[in-house]
Amino acid sequence: MPSDPDHVLDAIDGVVDEWETLSADAMRWAPPESKTPDLITEVSEIFGPLVNAFSQALRPVGDALERVLNSLEEPDGPRE
To answer: Taxonomically, which superkingdom (predicted)?
Structure first.
């Protein structure tokens, strides 16, 4: 290691230059992640995607039912 103290300043300048190129969002404080998820979090992580998939599977059934009801409401009767 050189005895010249300027190498320390050069190293600090290099780190600061890299730090300044980061976005402002990268330097924001974030709370620490919780180590133990609670029961509600685990249940929502398990059943959330299942409920979403089930609702997406029922969407065509709801659309078909809506078309049938709309065709019954038309004054001239259902279209063929």
So the answer is: Bacteria
